[in-house]
Amino acid sequence: MVEHALSVDVGCVRMTERHLRADPPTSSQIASATADIETAIDQAAEVVDFQGISTLVGVAGTVTTITAHALHLTTYDAGKIHLSQLPAAQIIDACTSLLVMTRAERASLGFLHKGRVDVIGAGALVWRTIVQRLQRDAGISMVVTSEHDILDGIALSIA
User: Fewest Cβ atoms closer than 10 Å to its Cβ: which of 8, 31, 67, 94?
Assistant: First the structure.
């Protein structure tokens, strides 16, 4: 059951358009985007108590793509991704790898949907920053990935 929630504007398209224009992004672009992401996480922390979090579950396309990379998949395999539990450090490494790749390098990844090539670096930066923050503030050490997303949860709550 969700006790507290806050939506913040740090999506991968928004972060790419605002900050990560170079291919690959420069360190100053990454620092600027990270500052925006951390501000958004600070806003969320005012509403959501991170101390009570024992499990971090990531959902939907960006997170499942990062998990495919962390699992070293050559093609997208929802069965291997769904409910996978990986060490936070492995997720952080996969995020960093995707962030610093060129678009051409990302395009060559067999698991990556073509529509995500341009924005997955920013999505990886967002997810990396969230995972690192929850490592620090909540002590999480593992990350669970779900193929189901927020719409599945809304439908379930209505049913």
Answer: 31
